[in-house]
Specification:
298 residues, GDXG_lipolytic_enzyme, 32% helix, alpha/beta
Length: 298
């Protein structure tokens, strides 16, 4: 049974959502009080693929839940012990797990979206865009005959690493060896960074799912190329999806350091997207075709 803690407007439960090969992945589920069903977000923490856990987004998740949104903040496996694509598979499974348990947590299974912070943005988008990629579906879910997939109704990234190859090269040029080593620990090489870059996936013309998207970024973020969010929104729209980049002047990488005005604006935009009745999973799923050839530069 999950461990629960009640607040004035939300309830927080801690659960084990995945057990595999002796490893356990836990999640914190933030639920608004009320009958529901509520929209929901699978929340993926940052940490440059090598650190972080379900507690990293605790304060943020509580504020989002107070907007009438269920938030499932998850652990993912970490590099170097678990390199790409291990943590993407964890996000994919968590999405299916939440849909399967939607009744227990008063979630509308057709309005499950995702929220990724920093490196978690890359993990979230890969799982959402390539939701039926066999590499990301290695964790089987015993769903009692239900057909569940990891499609998301909407996606949100905050300071998202939407092009890990560009971020890696930026870190090399600035001699930021901490970031360089984190990239190498997770991806191994530049070819893998290129293959798993959400932005370059779209620029290559790969057919993917394109749920409605919001990409938030700080204009003064020292860890990302300045045009990351805008380039992603442009590529998303060029591929046929709906997307918007929101860039906050003077804001850095950590959303916790953003101006209160900007943070409040972000929360309102997240709430609006999640509660919009138009944002439901399409009845016509996209069939993703993965090229097994080496990716070519855009």
């Amino acid at each position: 049974m999950p461990d629960s803690k009640a607040f004035d407007t939300i309830t927080v439960s801690e659960v084990t959502y995945l057990e595999k090969d002796g490893q356990t992945a836990r999640a914190l589920i933030y639920r608004p009080k009320g009958d529901g069903p509520f929209p929901a977000l699978v929340c993926v923490h940052g940490g440059a693929w090598v650190s972080g856990d379900r507690f990293a987004t605790a304060g943020f998740a509580e504020l989002v839940a107070e907007k009438g949104i269920v938030v499932m903040a998850i652990d993912t496996r970490l590099a170097p012990a678990c390199p790409y694509p291990a943590s993407v598979a964890d996000v994919n499974y968590a999405t299916r797990w939440l849909k399967y348990h939607s009744g227990r947590y008063k979630v509308d299974p057709d309005r499950v979206g995702g929220l990724g912070i920093s490196s978690g943005g890359q993990l979230l988008l890969l799982s959402a865009m390539r939701y039926n990629d066999p590499r990301y579906m290695i964790h089987e879910l015993q769903a009692s005959g239900k057909e569940l997939d990891a499609r998301l109704a909407f996606v949100i990234t905050c300071s998202g690493v939407l092009d890990p190859l560009a971020r890696y090269r930026m870190a090399e040029e600035s001699s930021n060896m901490a970031i360089v080593l984190c990239h190498r620990a997770y991806f191994g090489d530049e070819k893998t960074m290129e293959e798993s870059s959400p932005l370059l996936i779209l620029k290559r013309g790969e057919k993917t799912a394109l749920p409605d998207a919001l990409f938030f970024q700080g204009e003064a973020d020292p860890r990302l190329p300045a045009d990351t969010a805008q380039n992603m929104a442009n590529a998303w729209k060029s591929a046929g999806g709906n997307a918007r980049a929101i860039v906050y002047q003077g804001a850095g990488h950590s959303i916790g350091s953003w101006h209160k005005r900007d943070f409040s604006d972000m929360l309102l935009r997240i709430s609006s997207l999640c509660h919009s009745p138009a944002n439901k999973v399409s009845s016509n799923p996209v069939i993703v075709h993965i090229s097994r050839k080496s990716p070519t530069p855009p």
